[in-house]
Amino acid sequence: MIGYFRVPPVRGATFDGPLADKLTAAGCQALHHDACYALAVHKPGLEAAIASARPGDLLVVPSLHAFAAHIVDLLQVMGKLQAAGVYLMSLGEGIDTRMPGGFFPVCAQLLQFNDQTRMVRTAEEKIVRLGRPRPAPSEAPGDEEPASEAVVESPPEA
């Protein structure tokens, strides 16, 4: 079993922290990792993990969020794994593509992953906006006065 995870670039997050411990406890003999910077495309740790895997091997990740930046990234990496004959196990979501019929639970988790990613992005946008004054209610979009209803006259009866 090969383990892989991404570490966010925040103070205190390390490559030998709880994510590595979780993968080691799951039985991973080799660990690969990357620092995740926004939507980074170049992930040498992931490329090394896939290159070291043989057909039938299992790539174990702590969660989908510790594996991919967004849904498109996730699907692209899963395509690479499938092409290499490598299976994926996500400990957090209970995904194991070795199981018969495992594809459908993966699809359901992908939808949940997409929703969670959207929530994270929204939270990050709120953090970016901290300190900026909010627009006054009269300036906020969508606060315009409702348009008066048009009066339609009936044609005169003949």
From TrEMBL:
Domain annotation Resolvase/invertase-type recombinase catalytic: ranges: 1-133
Residue ranges of the region described as Disordered: 129-158
A Pfam short name: Resolvase
InterPro entries (alphabetical): Resolv_N (IPR006119), Resolvase-like_N_sf (IPR036162)
UniProt GO MF annotations: DNA binding; DNA strand exchange activity
Transmembrane regions listed in the UniProt entry: none
Name of the protein in its database record: Recombinase family protein
Taxonomic source organism: Caulobacter sp. 602-2
